[in-house]
Design a protein that fits this description.
Distance between the termini: 40 Å
Oligomer: single chain
Order of helices and strands: EEEEEEEEEEE
């Protein structure tokens, strides 16, 4: 059974930093594309950052230069370092694991950025 458990969310002032972590219980973690998505109130869930099995990354335009995604295949974890946070980054952040038709989600962690 696949489990994704996020941690690291919280309340931070604008300009501050947070680091989100996702611990995955997945067989052969290293072959999955891992991602972070977010959903703000009244908005659709959107991709924040993604990292493939070979380490290629892509980011939403809104977070480029501020957020960094990384993975540790030995530890089956994927992190999201978030710097220079803005109030518009406020959302629930979800960890995602994807391999072909297999798509898994964590329960989410709240990030709130105050102005």
């Amino acid at each position: 059974q696949v489990q994704l458990v996020e941690s690291g969310g919280g309340l931070v002032q604008a300009g501050g930093s947070l680091r989100l972590a996702c611990a995955a219980s997945i067989s052969i973690f290293r072959i999955y594309t891992m991602g972070w998505y977010r959903q703000a109130p009244g908005k659709e869930r959107e991709l924040v950052a993604r990292i493939t099995s070979v380490g290629s990354t892509n980011y939403a335009d809104s977070v480029k230069g501020r957020f960094t995604i990384s993975r540790d295949n030995a530890g089956s974890t994927v992190d999201l370092q978030m710097n220079s946070l803005k109030p518009e980054d406020t959302a629930i952040y979800y960890c995602n694991a994807n391999l072909l038709s297999n798509n898994y989600w964590g329960q989410g962690t709240q990030v709130t950025v105050s102005s």
